[in-house]
Amino acid sequence: MSVFVIRRLMQAFFVVFLMSVIVFFGVNIVGDPVYMLVSPDADQADIEAAIRRLGLDRPIWEQYLLFLKGAAQGNLGDSFIFGEPALKLILHHMPATLELAFSALFLAIAIGIPLGLFSGLYPDNPVSKGIMAGSILGFSLPTFWVGLMLILLFAVELGWLPSTGRGDTATIFGIETSLATWDGLKHIFLPALNLALLKISLAIRLTRAGVREAMGQDYVKYARAKGVSTRRIIFVHVMKNIMIPVVTVMGLEFGSLIGFSVVTETIFAWPGMGKLLIDAILQLDRPVVVAYLMIMVLFFVVINLIVDILYSILDPRVRLQDQGA
Amino acid sequence: MTAVLEVSGLKTHFFTHAGVVKAVDGVDFAVKKGEVMGLVGESGSGKSITGFSILGLIDAPGRIVEGAIRFNGEDIANAPEDRLKSIRGNRISMIFQDPMMTLNPVLRIDSQMMEAILAHEKVSKKVAWERCRDALGLVGIPSPEERLRAYPHQLSGGMRQRVSIAIAFLNKPDLIIADEPTTALDVTIQAQIIHEAQKLTKQTGTAMIWITHDLAVVAGLADRISVMYAGRIVEQGLTDDVIDHPLHPYTVGLLGSVPTANKRGERLFQIEGMTPNMLALPEGCAFAPRCGFASPACKVPPAVEHVADRELRCYHPQSQVAAQ
């Protein structure tokens, strides 16, 4: 197990390095940030001073090496706009995004799995057919449009829930979060639901497919032949089997929840990393974009590792081994 | 001796889109206390469905349409689910065909064994665990404590089937239905499993229905044999009688197609044709189209005839033909 983890961490390091090359050079192809920064009536001398100040006068490979040198010391460069370290900016916005993503994941599991279970157990029930039709909508409607509709309905028409911002926050365990106040919860519900919609549909379909497959298995019939209660068959025999694919997929999707939050955060003016990224892209704030993407790569790598470990806990047939060694 | 189980006129039909499949169509038999009955037939002859009918485990679109299943005198055909649940795994237990598929891959052996006890009795987990350990010891599993902690994939096929047998005997049932329990195992393991099952039925006085397509298996195991064809029992009798003097042409054919040492080098006998389409059974005797002795009389379904201690559904019993 520990050998497995070490090996995976080494692979992760390589992936992060590769991504840094792609991201750094990719971002440097797009636009010229200098003209975004200097005032429109600046003369040539001012512009050149700005270029030098930002280090953009050096060849790109030298810029990259400087970036690597900084990165090794935990410095991913300073924001062109705010003049602050990019990493600090992102970390400052991260809790807001994480609480949104976790809330969405919670909704996806809390709503998706029970609905999927029901429609898997009673596939011919009209309610199940409704659930399945709904999940198709969840899959196919674009996130930004659903977000706008949610605002229109709950914020504008009904006036039940606020449409923008994070609301009041409170600090628990040293983390500032909106989940700790009633006002904050009211603010987070709509964006979290918006972000979760796709994942709810995914959880429904995964669970339903898993239940339908498992119910036809011999081990279910055998459990019935042993006189085991229906509740135990569903919640122990069937659920334990279908949790394997559900945890795998939902875990891997957590990364994309953070990624997709860019759209949701923009619509609901949620002050998270996604909003920061969009602003940084619009203003060609290269260090922030690069730092954000690097952090995202790290996220995905870590999530994959956690899913692999969880998988081995859920499925006794999978034991993490140091393959080929 | 009293009968533990008496099945009379059992009909289990499946109502599919393509038509009604009469998987079990008027089956009568009885199993006495401590008796082993071999239920023999080809795939699709309805022998497994007969077993599942007894336990009330027939799923839609199938159901028991007629007949009685008297278990210790009580008719449990179409009994309420709660009643059936209290019988299943407790008074009647079942061993399935493929031990690779019947044990839940993600649950440990101990939880899969203990649930069979805890579903029927209010005992502490510790007591249940000890009973499971002893049961594993009885079926010849070495170091049972360790095996209880294992997951199914850590055991071999033969070992898993021993676990199934241990589970079947856990609650000291009156009847065990074994549905081809040795088909998925290799021959040496098969012999061990049969030996184990035989020993336990003798010790506990449990009656057993051993479902199989292999006459050789039941020849040494069963007290009585029932031969099933297309949803009906065509011949029934004491094992020695049926094996030595088969009456029904189908039984004769089945016995003829068992390879034995003194038939070395000869071509094996083969019953002509294929099992009938259950959606379109021939009128009268379902075996007639494949039978060398069929006559116009076979267009009318033969009734059950009692010949001495035997039961038979045929107009052309083979001993008579041979005598002519």
How would you describe what is shown here?
The complex is a heterodimer of chains A (325) and B (324). Helices cover 74% and strands 2% of the residues of chain A. Chain A has 325 residues and is mainly alpha-helical. The model of chain A has no long low-confidence stretch (mean pLDDT 84). Chain B folds into two domains: 3-91 and 173-323, P-loop containing nucleotide triphosphate hydrolases (Rossmann fold); 101-170, no CATH class. Helices cover 32% and strands 24% of the residues of chain B. Chain B contains twelve helices and twelve strands. Chain B has helices spanning 47-55, 81-87, 99-102, 109-118, 125-138, 144-148, 157-169, 187-204, 215-219, 239-244, 249-256, 318-323; strands at residues 3-16, 19-32, 36-40, 62-71, 74-75, 92-95, 175-179, 207-212, 224-229, 232-238, 305-307, 310-312. In chain B, the strands form two sheets. In chain B, strands 6-7-8-3-9-10-12-11 form an eight-stranded mixed sheet, with helices on both faces. In chain B, strands 2-1-4-5 form a four-stranded antiparallel sheet. In chain B, helix 4 crosses helix 5 (125-138), helix 5 (125-138) packs across helix 7 (157-169) and helix 7 packs parallel to helix 8 (187-204). Chain B is globular, with a radius of gyration of 20 Å. The A-B interface holds A 217-219, 221-229, 232, 236-237, 240-241, 244, 314-317 and B 55, 57, 85-90, 93-94, 96, 98, 101-108, 111, 115-116, 119-120, 151, 153, 167.
Structure summarized in a few sentences:
The complex is a heterodimer of chains A (325) and B (324). Chain A has 325 residues and is mainly α.
Write the layout of secondary structure elements.
The complex is a heterodimer of chains A (325) and B (324).
Chain A: H1 2-29, H2 34-37, H3 44-54, H4 60-72, H5 86-121, H6 126-140, H7 143-157, E1 170-172, E2 175-177, H8 182-215, H9 218-225, H10 230-267, H11 273-282, H12 286-314
Antiparallel strand pairs in A: 1-2
Chain B: E1 3-16, E2 19-32, E3 36-40, H1 47-55, E4 62-71, E5 74-75, H2 81-87, E6 92-95, H3 99-102, H4 109-118, H5 125-138, H6 144-148, H7 157-169, E7 175-179, H8 187-204, E8 207-212, H9 215-219, E9 224-229, E10 232-238, H10 239-244, H11 249-256, E11 305-307, E12 310-312, H12 318-323
Parallel strand pairs in B: 3-8, 3-9, 6-7, 7-8
Antiparallel strand pairs in B: 1-2, 1-4, 4-5, 9-10, 10-12, 11-12
Helix pairs in contact in B: 4-5, 5-7, 7-8
